[in-house]
Specification:
Number of strands of chain A: 13
Strand order of the largest sheet of chain A: 1-2-3-4-5-9-8
Low-confidence stretches of chain B: none
Mean pLDDT of chain B: 90
Shape of chain A: elongated
Number of helices of chain B: 5
Largest interface: A-B, 30 and 23 residues
Number of strands of chain B: 5
Oligomer: heterodimer
Radius of gyration of chain B: 16 Å
Largest sheet of chain B: 5 strands, parallel
Chain lengths: 316, 163
């Protein structure tokens, strides 16, 4: 077998590495695979830059089973998601859900969405030990909550000038989720950091479909709720809680808010945005209130959620 | 509508057994009743397991539990003076079962409530009985509730929700 040095010289002769590691064909021990190593799978060679990192505003989470790589043959940046059969409890607001990290689910979804740029693109291959590795095309972009928070405008200006376009694109993203549901699949982790706005195209693209969880009476409810939360975020230009109102200079006394104004799952997140921003039309606010504690009815399907959004858009 | 023709939807849960007890109390000793036990199979999804063998083992266990529950349910109803001859069973396998065995009808598991209502209509039942788990609003939103869905979608029949 060729060494890392030989492979780099063969495919990327101009490239110089700090450390020349080893070539892996079995990725079972992913913690051992590090910068300067090469993963040889599916007829290609992937030079590992580093472990992938998920960043939030106040946290940095290293994902040791996801390697940011260069595909030596093409020079393209790829993410290699290695097999990590993890199960854990996810705190979804006031509810705990047992989740499973499923390589085969993500591989199946990549096949389903191939060529559909509303989703991340990639393929899956098995390594020498039978581990199903997902090779993902890297998306250069920004997560949706950071996109809207980064727009330099007060909320009223944002709502009138920027929001219509953002809402239109968000509806497109919802239609993408509906496509998954129509095929009996669910995203599994709809959240702000999994909807990216791609820098080069401005397109909204879903990433990371490897979460699976046990089926329930409504297997798509979790996805739908995630969409509602993103809608609240893009409508408000941030997700508001009692604590952030003051920090974000929103002029409302907390006593004016009742428990019914908050999310029925994330009890500290405000859904009744019209109380914060009175110019938000009632029709739009009512869509948000379907996700609030005060709601007597909720959306059953992403389709009915999209219908409501489209009806709002028609009259506004 | 023959309200004495009862469809009793069960899974292997405590709530389902409460519904069984209730039906037994109402029907036991009476005449003209028919009771069908209906189970829409919900097997664990393949995605939750690292390999086929573990998944099949889990499916076998789930199916065995369900079959055992059916027997327990029938026995309990008979103990409560419901004649064995008026009790029937319908078990709808999951479409994603590893043990397909050439079944004609299967459940995709995306709308258990509607499948129960379909069975109600197809069998000409006048009453549907289901146990209620008692979930929080948040859980109902995220996961749905079969009993609530039945309440909202039932037409031309009687619905008993036992909680």
């Amino acid at each position: 077998m060729n060494t890392v040095r030989e492979l780099v010289e063969q495919f990327q002769p101009g490239l110089r590495l700090h450390d020349y590691g080893r070539v892996y064909t079995d990725t079972s021990e992913f913690m051992s695979i590090d910068s300067g190593d090469i993963i040889a799978v599916g007829g290609k060679h992937y030079l590992v830059y580093r472990d992938a990192v998920e960043r939030g505003l106040a946290y940095k989470d290293v994902k040791y089973w996801v390697k940011k790589c260069m595909e030596l043959e093409s020079g393209e940046t790829k993410l290699l998601k290695l097999v990590f059969h993890e199960s854990f409890y996810l705190e979804y607001g006031c509810v705990k859900i047992k989740c499973y990290r499923s390589p085969q689910k993500e591989a199946r979804m990549l096949d389903l969405v191939r060529g559909d740029t509303r989703f991340m693109q990639g393929r899956s291959v098995k390594d020498e030990a039978g581990n199903r590795i997902r090779i993902i095309d890297f998306i250069q972009g920004k997560r949706i909550d950071h996109v809207v928070a980064g727009i330099k405008a007060d909320h009223e200006t944002y709502f009138h000038e920027h929001y219509p376009d953002i809402l239109g694109k968000f509806i497109g993203a919802c239609e993408a989720v509906a496509f998954l549901h129509d095929h009996g699949e669910r995203h599994g982790d709809i959240n702000f950091d999994h909807l990216m706005k791609e820098y080069s195209t401005g397109a909204y693209r879903w990433i990371d479909f490897d979460y699976a969880y046990e089926a329930h009476a409504n297997p798509f409810g979790l996805d739908l709720f995630g969409l509602g939360r993103i809608l609240a975020c893009i409508t408000g230009k941030w997700l508001y809680t009692r604590h952030t109102l003051h920090d974000l200079h929103v002029d409302i006394g907390v006593s004016e808010l009742t428990s019914g104004d908050f999310s029925c799952v994330y009890k500290n997140e405000i859904m009744n945005l019209k109380k914060l921003f009175p110019y938000i039309p009632t029709r739009l606010n009512n869509i948000l209130l379907h996700f609030a504690e005060s709601a007597n009815i909720t959306y059953d399907t992403v389709g009915s959620f999209i219908e409501s959004l489209e009806e709002y858009r028609l009259v506004n | 509508m023959n309200f004495k023709k009862i469809l009793l939807a069960v899974d292997a849960s405590e709530n389902a057994m409460r519904a069984v007890e209730y039906v037994g109390a109402i029907v036991g000793g009476g005449s003209g009743f028919e009771v069908q036990l209906l189970c829409i199979e919900r097997l664990p999804h393949r995605d939750l397991f690292p390999d086929e063998d573990e998944w099949k083992t889990a499916c076998e266990m789930t199916r065995s539990e369900m079959k055992a529950f059916f027997d327990k349910t029938r026995n309990r109803l008979v103990e409560m003076d419901v004649p064995d001859s008026v009790i029937s069973e319908q078990y709808v396998s999951s479409c994603f079962s590893p043990f397909q065995n050439g079944v004609r009808q299967c459940s995709r598991g995306t709308s258990i409530a509607l499948e129960i209502m379909d069975a109600l209509k197809a069998g000409g039942f006048g009453t549907v009985v289901i146990g209620r788990r008692g979930v929080s609003k948040a859980e109902e939103f995220l996961f749905g509730s079969v009993s609530n869905k039945i309440i909202h979608s039932a037409k031309d029949c009687t619905v008993w929700v036992v909680s």
